[in-house]
């Protein structure tokens, strides 16, 4: 039956239209399923429930019941081979910001989040330069890429340094407070955080313009 349908569609030039219609009808549902899965993995946002998804799709003109939504969510998970929630610095960064906000309501967490994510992106864009600078600060002469890969695996340290640098660059009035809280939360020594923060800021500014740090 499917073969006959495809032959009929091809003969009428409607195969692409049929495919487009199918994708068009399911695309929004898949997207909502992705958002549902992502919301369950994030510490920063409210989980999108089946009821929320059902109401949204109904308003959008693509009504689905909760059973269909569960099936869609399972389909998405199968597409990615159930490989979700992989640890990365962004996860640590968002958790740290969540704790920062809970510990001190004066810290502008929302603004700091936006700045910190940009700094984290910057770190990865300049990973080669950062590798060499890290070798100097840690006292190791090697500039082997493997050394940076080892440092990069220390996601907590990277996330902490990104937040610290973001506070220094974009929210200097909050820098000391953020640094103090990060030390308490992560148990990473202040000197270590400052050293990595210096590495990042020296890549943003020219070496001659880099300001000295004071905790």
UniProtKB/TrEMBL annotation:
Domain of life: Eukaryota
InterPro entries linked: Cyclin-like_sf
GO biological process: reciprocal meiotic recombination
Gene3D superfamilies hit by this protein: Cyclin-like
GO CC annotation terms, alphabetical: site of double-strand break
Sections of the chain in a coiled coil: none
Name under which the protein is recorded: Cyclin N-terminal domain-containing protein
Organism: Eptatretus burgeri (Inshore hagfish)
């Amino acid at each position: 039956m499917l073969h006959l349908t495809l032959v009929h569609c091809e003969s009428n030039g409607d195969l692409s239209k049929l495919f487009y219609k199918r994708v068009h009808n399911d695309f929004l549902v898949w997207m909502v399923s992705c958002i549902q899965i992502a919301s369950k993995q994030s510490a920063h946002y409210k989980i999108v429930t089946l009821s929320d998804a059902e109401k949204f799709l109904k308003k959008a003109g693509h009504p689905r019941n909760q059973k269909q939504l569960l099936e869609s969510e399972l389909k998405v998970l199968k597409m990615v081979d159930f490989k979700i929630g992989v640890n990365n610095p962004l996860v640590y960064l968002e958790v740290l910001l969540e704790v920062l906000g809970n510990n001190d309501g004066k810290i502008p967490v929302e603004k700091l989040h936006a700045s910190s994510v940009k700094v984290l992106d910057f770190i990865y864009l300049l990973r080669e330069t950062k590798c060499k600078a890290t070798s100097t600060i840690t006292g190791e002469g090697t500039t082997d890429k493997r050394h940076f890969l080892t440092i990069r695996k220390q996601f907590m340290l990277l996330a902490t340094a990104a937040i610290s640098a973001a506070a220094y660059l974009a929210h200097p009035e909050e820098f000391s407070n953020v640094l103090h809280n990060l030390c308490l939360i992560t148990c990473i020594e202040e000197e270590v955080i400052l050293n990595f923060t210096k590495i990042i800021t020296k890549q943003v500014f020219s070496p001659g313009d880099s300001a000295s740090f004071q905790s």
